[in-house]
């Protein structure tokens, strides 16, 4: 059975394109990122979930919760804030994303974060009556590469947490 070291899975959560802010500009938001193993346990006649922090090794099939916290430290209201996370290497998207509300919407990407939508599309070519036809169809959830939440506003000193699940390949 193949085992993955969790620090390598977690390291892929850091956005590659994010540049540090210029030294003269104060931070506007602070981010915290965590990754927890999800265990299902039976308590009497019901099944509950436990989140195990600090796990060093995972095995194929393990379910992980990816969580990002965002805190507005700007002193004022921020509008149109995007909070995005890649699906870590060695995993595939498992659903369970914090749902759309009146304050934010959740979007997904199936093309490494180039485009986002509520239902990402992919192109497929099929043969119909001897002709090749290209169509756009919904991408399978397992092909999602990124998740993001677009907030209409983030109030001063407000902290929000967003999460989604991934399964280890």
Question: Could you please describe the fold and organization of this structure?
Answer:
This protein is mainly beta. It has one domain (4-18, 25-168). Helices cover 4% and strands 54% of the residues. It is built from one helix and twelve strands. The protein has one helix spanning 6-11; strands at residues 4-5, 29-43, 46-52, 57-58, 63-72, 78-86, 91-95, 104-109, 121-128, 131-138, 146-154, 159-168. Strands 3-2-5-12-7 form a five-stranded antiparallel beta sheet, with no helix packed on it. A three-stranded antiparallel beta sheet has the order 6-11-8, with no helix packed on it. Strands 1-4 form a two-stranded antiparallel sheet. It is globular and about 60 Å long. The relative contact order is 0.25. Residues 7-19 have low confidence and may be disordered.
**Helix fraction?**
under 10%
Main-sheet strand order equals 3-2-5-12-7
Strand content: over 45%
Overall, the morphology is: globular
What structural class results from the helix and strand content? mainly beta
Query: What is the element string, with H for helices and E for strands?
Result: EHEEEEEEEEEEE
**Tally of discrete structural domains:** 1
Instruction: Kindly report how far apart the N and C termini lie.
Output: 11 Å
Beta strands, count: 12
| Overall pLDDT score | 87
Which sheet architecture does the biggest sheet show? 5 strands, antiparallel
Tally of DSSP helical segments: 1
* Low confidence ranges: 7-19
Radius of gyration computed on alpha carbons = 19 Å
């Amino acid at each position: 059975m193949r085992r993955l070291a969790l620090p390598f899975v977690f390291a892929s959560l850091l956005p590659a394109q994010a540049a540090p802010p210029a030294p003269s500009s104060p931070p506007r938001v602070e981010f915290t990122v965590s990754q927890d193993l999800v265990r299902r346990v039976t308590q009497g006649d019901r099944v509950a979930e436990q989140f195990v922090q600090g796990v060093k090794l995972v095995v194929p099939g393990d379910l992980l919760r990816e969580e990002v916290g965002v805190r507005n430290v700007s002193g004022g209201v921020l509008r149109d804030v995007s909070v995005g996370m890649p699906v870590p290497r060695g995993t595939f998207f498992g659903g369970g994303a914090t749902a759309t509300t009146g304050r934010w919407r959740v979007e997904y990407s199936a093309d490494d974060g180039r485009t986002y939508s509520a239902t990402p599309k992919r192109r497929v070519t099929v043969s119909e009556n001897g002709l090749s036809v290209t169509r756009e169809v919904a991408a399978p959830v397992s092909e999602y590469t990124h998740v993001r939440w677009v907030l209409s506003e983030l109030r001063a000193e407000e902290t929000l947490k967003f999460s989604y699940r991934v399964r280890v390949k």
